[in-house]
Design a protein that fits this description.
By secondary structure, the chain is an alpha+beta fold. It has two domains: about 5-70; about 75-255, Aminoglycoside 3'-phosphotransferase, Chain: A, domain 2. The chain contains eight helices and ten strands. The chain has helices at about 25-40, 75-90, 105-115, 120-135, 180-190, 195-205, 215-240, 245-255, and strands at about 5, 15-20, 55-60, 60-65, 65, 70-75, 145-150, 155-160, 165, 175. The strands form four sheets. Strands 1-2-5 form a three-stranded antiparallel beta sheet, with no helix packed on it. Strands 6-8-9 form a three-stranded antiparallel beta sheet, with helices on one face. It has a two-stranded antiparallel sheet with strand order 3-4. It is globular. The protein starts with a strand and ends in a 16-residue tail after the last helix.
């Protein structure tokens, strides 16, 4: 389901009510539009309640209403590939603007506000961010740009007990290089050994493309790893339990632990 979920005391039992902050009203409206568009296009995804005009203002917050999924668990790499293959074939919606992918959103803020960083580490992250932003401007040509999910990993695919799967967390759906969606699974194998080579090969076979063979792969890999590192750094600022993981990730992307795959990357739970 979309992030920030909370049950409304007055909603039926089959509804989920995420509550984005007031300043995210436009993003909430866009996510609702994406959900309705995907449903009409036949791409399995989390669905909004059809009879409610959304978002609804409640005490200064933009509230959206979603149908609760049946019992489910994280999807598999092949389920991610199958859903992305469907999504990437869709023409962009005609009645609203998806906008372009924003690979660097919130990264500068994470770096500047992270209390867990020392001055030297902060300076290195600033320089690395500037480097990645410059390289993004020179991204090699790849597959044709299309509608992308924006955060396509197994945790954003719900696998139901009946074998069906659906996309979750639609807030980053946009137009961009399809490789941006594919690289997330590629680094789970090549950077962290979170999946096996056989699983990655099957992912590529289902989707029909291996992003690691593309000239722009290393850049998208580096951006993803950088995002994951700054997320851990940000989390460590409010929860000291994440500080070891944040420092480990930072050391890896700085080259202190040699070539990939790196061990020791763990989910922030």
């Amino acid at each position: 389901m979309p992030t920030g979920c909370a049950l409304d005391d007055h909603a039926p039992d089959d509804l989920i009510v995420p509550a984005p902050a007031a300043e995210q009203r436009a993003a909430a409206r866009r996510e609702v539009n994406v959900s309705r568009w995907l449903e009409a296009s036949g791409v399995p995804a989390v669905q909004v309640v059809p009879v409610v005009a959304q978002p609804v203002d409640v005490d200064g917050r933009a509230v959206t209403f979603w149908r609760e999924l049946p019992p489910h668990h994280h999807g598999t790499p092949t389920q991610v590939a199958a859903l992305l293959k469907q999504l990437h074939r869709l023409p962009p919606p005609a009645d609203f603007d998806l906008g372009e992918v924003a690979p660097f959103v919130r990264l500068e803020e994470r770096i500047e506000t992270a209390r867990s960083l020392g001055d030297e580490d902060r300076q290195w992250l600033r320089a690395r961010l500037a480097e990645l932003q410059q390289r993004w401007k020179e991204l090699p040509e790849g597959l044709p740009q299309c509608v992308i999910h924006g955060d396509a990993w197994v945790g954003n695919v719900a696998a139901m007990d009946d074998g069906e799967a659906a996309l979750l967390d639609l807030e980053r759906t946009s137009v961009g290089p399809p490789e941006w969606d594919l690289v997330h699974t590629a680094i789970k194998w090549g950077s962290f050994n979170w999946i096996t080579e056989a699983q990655y090969v099957e992912f590529c076979e289902v989707y029909g493309h291996d992003v690691t063979r593309w000239a722009g792969f290393e850049l998208l890999r580096d951006i993803r790893e950088f995002r994951m590192t700054t997320m851990a750094v940000q989390a460590a600022s409010t929860n000291p339990a994440f500080e070891v993981q944040a420092r480990h990730r930072l050391a890896c992307i700085r080259g202190d632990y040699g070539k990939r795959p790196w061990s020791g990357w763990k989910a922030l739970e």
